[in-house]
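> Could you send the Aminotransferase class V domain-containing protein prediction when you get a chance?

Sure thing. Input:
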Amino acid sequence: MDPQLKENGDVSHDDDNNHVYKKLKLSPYISDSEILEEFSHHEPGVARINNGSFGSCPASIIAAQKQWQFRFLQQPDDFYFNQLKKGILESRTLIKDLINADDVEEVSIVDNATTAVAIVLQQICWAFIEGRFQRGDAVVMLHYAYGAVKKSIQAYVSRAGACVIEVQLPFPVRSNEEIIVEFRKALEKGKSNGRKVRFAVIDHITSMPSVVIPVKELVKICRDEGVDQVLVDAAHSIGSVEVDVKDIGADFYTSNLHKWLFCPPSVAFLYCRKSSTFSDLHHPVVSHEYGNGLAVESAWIGTRDYSSQLVVPSVLDFFNRFEGGIEGVRKRNHDAVIKMGEMLAKAWGTHLGSPADMCPSMVMVGLPAILGISGEEDTLKLRAHLRNNFGIEVPIYYRTPKEDETKSRDKNDCITGYARISHQIYNREDEYYKFRDAINQLVRNGFTCKILLPN
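Output:
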């Protein structure tokens, strides 16, 4: 047999039992070895099961970013006058198609979702200051809103005279209906004493704990109840769940592109549905583009590095190397993180924080109660202990136990700590087994968070 044929082809036989060589069909999609190469810059030996916090960027996208950076350094004037606006418009156009917006003018590119939230809240703040909204009117947000969003509401809206109502969500959560019931309660509270609910901030995916929120249903409730404007804070959504801004129906929608869409940090989009308030939106950093529309204002806020905003075409080319493109990667990550989450919960005798259909590419997994996680400080100490002693990077959430749980005779049944595991294409199953074994070792050794020194 020809060794070359043997190496490059399959051997079969015809009806006369003669050897027939068939050329192997090469896959057009990215291979496992190529994925490893794309993320070979990650620190070796670390189980990085925390893509949700900072995202990840493949080597080929980093190379594309460096090309954009070099273009600027090579000839800044040509870059500014002939390349920058054209490149950002191309990125905005691709994002517009990706999220099913009607018009590219509805899409602005900003540094991150926190910046996008500030842009919207700045407009809400002025509505209170200028008397379009009355002092004491309500603003509604989820109790699990991201910390920076809560602080932004405090900085912009509370100071302007708004009454802030928090939706008290359950956790663990078992159904969308539980969330919808609590959201309706918050709106009713907001409308009490003759107040109007002027604004609502709804997460698409809460950060800690991580849960996919039924945003379409909540936005519709806001419309039915006369809420003036709705912002969906979807920092984790693009690349992790389906995004269709027309179907969701919110006035504003923002998502980071560096968390689950492989862009380098930091870059996000802000979708603003055309309305009477469209022209009132401005970037917090005022440049000479002020007054030319938010998208134009955001495209130039002074001399800085815009390369992360310009690599969107390269990122979408990267996704096309995977079977099914973005949808294929989303399914791959979701299925894998559910599988690994269920494996960990079974190994530790605990449970997941929500059903599989309410999980994105992240899952909350209960940690053994015997670890004694009794507050936020314990979560930080345990996280640092796992990082420094086991090479595992994973965030941990503290859940305040209910009153009936604190009275239980068996304290080991009261789970107060949950690990938020992520799955991105670079993750391997052995990283989750490493986490499993580390927690099991701590349990066997009688470890509790009390023995850890403060960070």
